Amino acid sequence: MYRSREWILERIRRDHEQDPETGVQTLAMRYKVSRAVVAEALRLPRPEARARRRSSVLDPVKPAIELMLLQEREAAARRGHTIRGIVERLRVEEDFTAASYSTVRDYVRRRRLALAQEARTRARRAAAGPEPVAAHVEGAATGPAAEPAA
To answer: Using an 8 Å Cβ cutoff, are 39 and 24 in contact?
Structure first.
């Protein structure tokens, strides 16, 4: 199986940090690389951590969108909000014009799928009823061997 060079170098560094007594030759054999690669991994500094994901442009209005989607689910008799309608409501009610149509569309699509999945899970759990609680008495025998002989 192919592993990227960065992956191998990171694993070598991690193994060496966990057990500094591990030799270069042992690490080379473990990762099937040359001793020069192991020496390079130990010599090079760790790459800097990746920057945290920046916040979404929709963060200020996500609660409003969520409320619209929940209202949409409760009013099942009428057709739900269109993306265009949601964008228009955000513009009018929230004075929000920072996000493009496609950004709102993609977010709403993901949230609708997640809400539908949550509803299916709730319905499945409600249909199954409460989970049975196993009554277990300490020292009591159970199973076919525990039945009294007649």
So the answer is: yes
